[in-house]
């Protein structure tokens, strides 16, 4: 069931099933985009970002993009457009102390910095929150007080993820200059996006380093510092996560899934899956 809801405070929620490529568009508001089934590719200038059910994308107001469906089946998408006034109010309440919040005239009327438009992990509290919100909307709930509380918690959960994925990872980098740490992490996120979007291909270190505008050895040293995994370990973990999702939600055979997620050998996939999840792929599918 597709639907769109525009609340009285101009927050907007969309649930859509899409199977075609969209023309170039521009975001009217800060936007969080989820793919609940299937997969989508977003084109932001020269960047191509692939979004699956285990990840989500942030788009800032004014960002131009085009999207297309990657999967054979239509993609089921869920997105939230946050009105600027609602977003400013939330940000002030998140950052300001109570004495300043009491003086509403001190509130900033704009978002001074944009969020990092990259791929974030869709798990934990934000996933729980979004699926509960969608369940209410699917059932026709009209209570805007309840819906806006979910939107408020969605922003809280996103801020926590943003802090984990941006600030805390930047602090792990061994550079004294904070601006250098931020720039290195920005480039590492380009490498991470490349892995998310090309996980099922033969990724080389040279391609990854070139995409991140880093030398191979600089990439290897800083990627491990930021993500606690080497690029190869990150790629293997990502492939196993995508395989787990396919085992749970599709009828594809294990041999088919092996190829779909980028593994070459079924036996090595089964061994890695059992090591990582303490269960064989077949048993995982039966339990799921």
UniProtKB/TrEMBL annotation:
Residues 189-287 form the HTH araC/xylS-type domain. InterPro entries: AraC-bd, Homeodomain-like_sf, HTH_AraC. Pfam families: AraC_binding, HTH_18. GO terms for molecular function: DNA-binding transcription factor activity; sequence-specific DNA binding. The keyword DNA-binding applies. It comes from the Bacteria. Keywords: DNA-binding, Transcription, Transcription regulation. This is AraC family transcriptional regulator. It comes from Mucilaginibacter hurinus.
